[in-house]
């Protein structure tokens, strides 16, 4: 069975060109996504991929209608190939049911892996350079060092509860406790309860 998949683009909201091309490719069933690729959830693509069986062929008008990135495209086509499903892109004249088409996708897979390696290397190099300049990666602390000192000062007043201090700084009690511990500031309220009578 030949099954088509069409998806509108942000620039072109009219899918008729795709639908006509898929009809011309003798698709027996066409799944048509009306949301653009900006939305992560693509229910029609999910339904389309579920429908495909061994021996079927998935046809798209253009490669970018199926996937948002080279990595995404390679993963989808490899999964289809593993399931015994062929893939054709009409605009790029790629057909994985032929040896030439399979070769193209092996090259695409190698390029996607190469791109992933480059991104990883750049990320590691960037983090190392930032560390060399004294910067740390990760999320910015919820409380600045000044906030932590203010919180400790507030907590030294026995009339003020930890919940009130946490609320004042718009953080949870757990975050407040962690910030105090990180700064090496003993919790004044805990210290007060441990003080000898």
TrEMBL record:
Keywords: DNA integration, DNA invertase, DNA recombination, DNA-binding. The keyword 4Fe-4S does not apply. InterPro entries: Recombinase_CS, Resolv_N, Resolvase-like_N_sf, SSR_resolvase. Residues 1-134 form the Resolvase/invertase-type recombinase catalytic domain. The keyword DNA-binding applies. SMART domains: Resolvase (SM00857). One of its GO terms (biological process) is DNA integration. Pfam families: Resolvase (PF00239). The active site is at 9 (o-(5'-phospho-dna)-serine intermediate). Signal peptide: none annotated. GO terms for molecular function: DNA binding; DNA strand exchange activity. Coiled coil: none annotated. Belongs to the site-specific recombinase resolvase family. This is DNA invertase. The lineage of its organism: Bacteria, Pseudomonadati, Pseudomonadota, Betaproteobacteria, Burkholderiales.
């Amino acid at each position: 069975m030949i099954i088509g998949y069409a998806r509108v683009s942000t620039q072109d909201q009219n899918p008729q060109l795709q639908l006509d091309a898929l009809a011309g490719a003798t698709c027996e069933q066409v799944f048509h996504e009306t949301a653009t690729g900006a939305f992560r959830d693509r229910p029609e693509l999910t339904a389309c991929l579920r429908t495909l069986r061994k021996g079927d062929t998935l046809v798209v008008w253009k490669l970018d209608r199926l996937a948002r990135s080279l990595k995404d495209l390679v993963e989808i086509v490899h999964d289809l190939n593993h399931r015994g499903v062929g893939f054709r892109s009409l605009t790029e004249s790629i057909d994985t049911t032929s040896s030439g088409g399979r070769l193209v996708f092996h090259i695409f897979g190698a390029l996607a892996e190469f791109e992933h390696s480059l991104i990883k290397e750049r990320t590691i190099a960037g983090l190392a350079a930032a560390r060399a300049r004294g910067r740390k990666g990760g999320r910015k602390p919820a409380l600045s060092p000044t906030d932590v000192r203010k919180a400790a000062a507030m907590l030294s007043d026995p009339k003020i509860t930890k919940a009130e201090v946490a609320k004042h700084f718009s953080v949870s009690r757990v975050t407040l406790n962690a910030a105090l511990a990180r700064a090496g500031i003993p919790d004044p309220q805990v210290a007060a309860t441990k003080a000898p009578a």
